[in-house]
Amino acid sequence: MKTALILLFDEVEVLDFAGPFEVFAVASELHSHALFDVKTVASELRPIRAVNGLSINPDQTVASAPQADVLIIPGGAGSRSVMRDKAIVNWVRDQSYAAEKVLSICSGARILATADLLDGLTITTHHEVMPEMPEYAPGAICLDDVRFTDNGQILTSAGISAGIDLSLYVVGQLCGIAVAEKTAAYMEYDWRVRRPGQSSR
User: What is the full DSSP assignment across 8-68?
Assistant: First the structure.
């Protein structure tokens, strides 16, 4: 079983974390809960207030979290504050050294950039964040109008719902395309974007 950790922080975008949570958790549920142990992680064990007021209780703190096999970094307005939080940025960097897959969703790319993880990579992010990325990751190649990119270990998605496409893609990589297709079918998700670099239109 692989450990999937999802970072939470105040003003996180709801679907940025909830979409990947659903994908990895459902994939595991459909296979006797044997594929992924999905946990949410935050700096403190207190309710996290997401964008538009949703309250979430994280499972663990960054200090107590195990090593992730799959590390998921969502975005949202709060990603700007996380960029200034050295403890979380260092945790993301340290986790990334040993993680099999590191996913940024939407403006979570800001956090990976601050952790110096995007230099020389082909990336994407939310279309409104794209103009900022040359400042945060000057060595990265930013692609507009794609749903997600795959650099091997590090993968990035465009805004919000694109994180579902990326998560299904990663499930397909780790567990086989049949598992990803079964997951999408159960979720009744019209999974059309299955390749990195595929247009979002």
Answer: --TT--HHHHHHHHHHHHHHHHTTTT-SEEEEEEESSSS-EE-GGG-EE--SEETTT----
Q: What is the pLDDT of residues 100-118, one digit of tens each?
A: 999 999 999 999 999 999 9
Collect all residues with Cβ–Cβ distance below 8 Å to 179 and sequence separation of at least 6.
Answer: 27, 30, 31, 35, 171, 172
Task: Give the bridge partners for 199, in sequence order.
Answer: 146
- Dihedral-angle region of residue 9 (phi above 0 means left; psi in -120 to 50 means alpha; beta otherwise): beta
Residue with tokens 């946990």: 39
What's the number of CA atoms in the CB half-sphere (13 Å) around residue 164?
20
Assess if residue 20 is contained within a domain.
Answer: yes
What is the tens place of the pLDDT at every residue in 72-96?
Answer: 999 999 999 999 999 999 999 999 9
Whichever domain contains 89, its CATH number is: 3.40.50.880
Give yes or no for a contact between 153 and 10, defined as CB atoms under 8 angstroms apart.
no
With b for 16 or more beta-carbon neighbours within 10 A and e for fewer, the 149-171 pattern comes to bbbeebbbbbbbbbbbbbbbbbb
Q: Structural domain tally of the chain? A: 1
- Token pair of 9 as six digits: 């922080």
Q: Are strands 36-42 and 2-7 parallel, antiparallel or unpaired?
A: parallel
Residue 196 lies in a domain: no
DSSP 6: E
